[in-house]
Amino acid sequence: MVLAGRMSGRLTRAFASCLILYATFPLDALAQTTPAAVAQPAAAQPFSAEQLDALLASIALYPDELLTQVLMASTFPLEVVAASRWLEDPAHKSLSGDALAKALEAEPWDPSVKSLVPIPAVLATLNTNLTWLQQLGYAFANQQADVFASVQRLRRLAQQNNKLESSPQQTVSTQQVTVEPPAGSSQAPTEQQVIVIEPTQADTVYVPSYNPTVVYGSAWPYPSYPPYYAAPAPGYYFGAALATGLAFAAGAAVVGGLWGWARPGWGGGYANVNVNRYNNINVNRGQISSSRWGSGAGAARAGTFPRAPGGPAGLPGRGQVSVPGGAVRPPTRPGGPGGAGGIGGAGRPGGPGGAGGIGGAGRPGGPGGAGGIGGAGRPGGPGGAGGIGGAGRPGGPGGAGGIGGAGRPGGPGGAGGIGGAGRPGGPGGAGGIGGAGRPGGGVGANRPAQRPAGGGAGQRGAFGDMNRGRQAGQAGQRGAQSRSFNQQRSAGGGARAGGGARGGGGRGGGGRGGGGRR
Fold first, then answer.
1. pLDDT of residue 102 exceeding 90
2. Which is it for strands 247-248 and 204-205: parallel, antiparallel or unpaired?
3. What is the rounded distance in angstroms from the CA atom of residue 401 to the CA atom of residue 397?
4. Which of 52, 157, 190, 274 is the most buried (most CB within 10 A)?
5. Rounded to 5 degrees, what angle do the CA atoms 13, 26, 484 make?
6. Measured at the alpha carbon of residue 313, what is the angle toward residues 307 and 316, in degrees to the nearest 5?
7. How many of the other CB atoms lie within 10 Å of CB of 322?
8. How far apart are CA 508 and CA 515, in angstroms?
9. Which of helix, strand or coil describes residue 8?
10. For 401-449, what is each residue's pLDDT tens digit?
11. How many CB atoms lie within 10 A of CB 17?
12. According to the 3-state scheme, what is the secondary structure of 412-454?
């Protein structure tokens, strides 16, 4: 019993040493879980470009002024709910025009919320998609310029798909705007083309409704973030869809006192507010003096978001990519690491390590999981295969073989992951450490360093040189350390030694387990 306890302690320490060696590989997947990234406050994390596009997909084709008022109102979700309930009251349903504007003066809501009351189809849609509304408001409150840039990306995408054009309800045009340089910068202003949408009739607003998967096409570039469809509320009729896929609700008459006071400042990435018109509506709240919504002293402010809300696009900060102004790109992510194999119970082998995840476009495959420790008298589990690398990225390393139980061999190392197009495969995983008196497991197959275009199997196949590792070059560092460890144990207790040695060379597969002698 004492001997078994000592042996178990040695095996545990050996397995820890194996994992330390395995951790020396530089893995992008593991780098993403650094304490600094975890400790960053959620409220300080912005939504990524693909998340913003998913959130805005349902309203990006609204007329400019209506879009701006919806975005500002989304930062006050509780007031949107209150206004929707207020409008359902029979005493208020029949109000219109100046009488409606007068009745709204008593309510303490933001002018952006009041401006939507004469357009009940919009207010009801916001009220029935509250989780989306909260995320939309958080995004606009913290990333106003990014939100307007997302709108332009989506409009270009719809236009390229022949789904955005002028109609009897709204006019679509391309305009040249001056892009303002950053504050305090000496850069000269530049020019940029933007897509502008305006009501065809100045006194009537038609609210479009459309399925984003139709309007933006099947080539939506973000598989991880499908476009959110903010479905219209029941009871509001939208006409038959046009050839573009857009359907329109019955026109809503503009209430002069509540309309026409805000529109996008496309060149600056902010909502441009008419100060006098805003203050006339804002009789029960603080007055403003700045025409830039949410920017600087005297500006209209968004509602308070103590933390990032959950919703259809997930939490902010995920899937960050850099998206240029004229294009959209799919997110790129490394494959996740495979899970470690389970520890075998008494008389049972260790479980196999899980395969590493497949890398996204331009990202490496994840590492294979380590094989499980074998139970007493049973072998260690095999290491998991490394993940397949995304286009232009290497495959992940194979997982380390599991430590063998007393008197049993270690598990074989996992095969290295297949490299993406033009990139090498991952290294084979280290063979598991053998139990007392047993050899270590063989190292997993290496993928060739030089691969033909397209990646995948090497010239001799994915495992073509597994049995030629001894001829491929000198043994790898991991195999040497494994042999050294077992040789030291052999010297002290008469155990047989043997470590897995990895074959070297550009074309070589992994070697078989290196032989210590009896």
1. yes
2. unpaired
3. 12
4. 52
5. 35
6. 40
7. 7
8. 19
9. helix
10. 667 667 677 667 666 666 655 666 677 666 666 666 666 566 555 555 4
11. 14
12. CCCCCCCCCCCCCCCCCCCCCCCCCCCCCCCCCCCCCCCCCCC
- Residue percentage of the chain with pLDDT more than 90: 42
The one-letter code for the residue type at 263 is: R
**Residue 504 burial (CB count, 10 A):** 16
- Which of 268-290 are b and which e, b meaning 16 or more Cβ less than 10 Å from the residue's Cβ? bbbbbbebebbbbbbeeeeebee
Strand 247-248 versus strand 270-273 pairing type:
unpaired
> What is the gyration radius of the CA atoms in the chain, in angstroms?
31
Residue with tokens 């991880």: 224
- CA-wise closest residue to 368 among 418, 331, 440, 404: 418
Is residue 509 a contact partner of residue 472, using CB atoms and an 8 Å limit? Answer: yes
List Cα–Cα distances, 74 to 28, 77, 79, 111, in angstroms: 37, 6, 9, 12
For residues 432 and 484, give the distance between their C-alpha atoms in angstroms, rounded to a whole number. Answer: 14
Dihedral angle over CA of 142, 148, 154, 155, nearest 10: 160
pLDDT in tens, 188-245: 889 999 999 999 999 999 999 999 999 999 889 999 999 999 999 888 878 888 889 9
Answer whether residue 2 shows pLDDT above 90.
no
Count CB neighbours of 199 within 10 A. 20
**Helices marked H in 367-511:** 469-472, 477-493
Provide the strand spans (E) within 72-123.
none
Residue 263: strand, helix, or coil? strand
At residue 322, what are phi and psi to the nearest 5 degrees? -100, 120
Q: Which tokens sit at 107?
A: 């309510």
